[in-house]
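Recap slide: ClpX-type ZB domain-containing protein, sequence and predicted structure.
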Amino acid sequence: MGITYETKIQCDFCGKKDEEVKAVVVGINKSCICDQCVEVAAKFLSEDDKEKGGS
Ligand SMILES: [Zn+2]
């Protein structure tokens, strides 16, 4: 009945496939994020942290 398992992992955030990026991280709920989106998220978090810290 055409049940196919996804062999290609795809980033849920930017839609890029694992072959288009360096790495795609798959979460427990099968949501995926690529290294590029992780970088953006990390940047966002660090900026947020900087704002709060104020140094
Ligand atoms: Zn991505």
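Residues 9-50 form one domain.
Helices lie at 35-53.
(End of recap.)
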